[in-house]
Amino acid sequence: MRSVCFTLAAFIAVATASVLPKRDLATVYSKCTVKDTVAITFDDGMFIYEEELLPLLANYSAKATFFLNGNNYACIYDDKSVQSVRNLLDSGHEIGAHTWSHAHMAQLSWDKLHHEMFLIEDALVKVAGVMPALMRPPYGEYNDRALAAIKARNQSAIIWDFDSQDSIGATVAKSKSLYDEAAAKRPDSILTLNHSVLKNTVREVLPHALEVLSKAGYKFVTVSECLGGLQPYQFVQYRGMKDDTWKC
């Protein structure tokens, strides 16, 4: 009897799987497509160092992309964070989503995936007036369920092909050497991973990276630009006015 029940259950599972439509998966980009470009990207903000990047990036006519959390190192609804996000956009930089709490997306249920993504999207619409079309899975981790959720929210997943290793404890010297090696190899393009919440990255590594990559002849562009004009936002609207919903 147990054997019959098991066989019937297995049959039902297979039959159901064959009937249910397969979810579409988001496109994953890990490399720029426009030659001679570098996309400098930063994860995990907002925090206290992003404002320091603005004059540095301006010195190299560089536009960067910031993948933001809602409640990680700081709350995105804090007055300072709100102003910093707006300053990034007003300076010509790009912002994308990075989940609300820097969650491991491959470990989340379908409902929790959407909750994590909704919260940061809602915040970016309120604070910045933009609905992101680009998102970066924290830790670079994703599975088919995560990609299906990203696709369902009309977004693309952005990974990287160069890691400064700042988030895994690389010394300043090590991160600088990785940028030196990349500049020496001179690939057609580079899509970088850095973290704006780390003081040494902002104050020591990035000045060096911009200098060596500039000398190598690269143009510093946003992720959407380095991907040939991919749309960074689903829509743009007026920025919100702070109210009781602006809280972490």
Automatic annotation (TrEMBL):
The listed locations are: Cell membrane
Asked whether the keyword Transport is assigned, the reply is no
> Which Gene3D superfamilies does the record match to this protein?
Glycoside hydrolase/deacetylase (3.20.20.370)
The cross-references to Pfam families, in alphabetical order and at most eight, read: Polysacc_deac_1
| Keywords attached to this entry | Carbohydrate metabolism, Cell membrane, Cell wall biogenesis/degradation, Glycoprotein, GPI-anchor, Hydrolase, Lipoprotein, Membrane, Metal-binding, Signal
Gene Ontology CC: plasma membrane; side of membrane
Q: Which GO terms describe its molecular function?
A: hydrolase activity, acting on carbon-nitrogen (but not peptide) bonds; metal ion binding
**Is Metal-binding among the key words of this record?**
yes
Q: Domain of life, per the record?
A: Eukaryota
Q: Which GO terms describe its biological process?
A: carbohydrate metabolic process; cell wall organization
Domain NodB homology: where?
A: 36-221
Q: How does it sit in the membrane?
A: Lipid-anchor; GPI-anchor
InterPro entries membership: Glyco_hydro/deAcase_b/a-brl, NODB_dom
Q: Where is the signal peptide?
A: 1-17
Name the coenzymes or cofactors required. Answer: Co(2+)
For this entry, the protein name equals Glycoside hydrolase/deacetylase
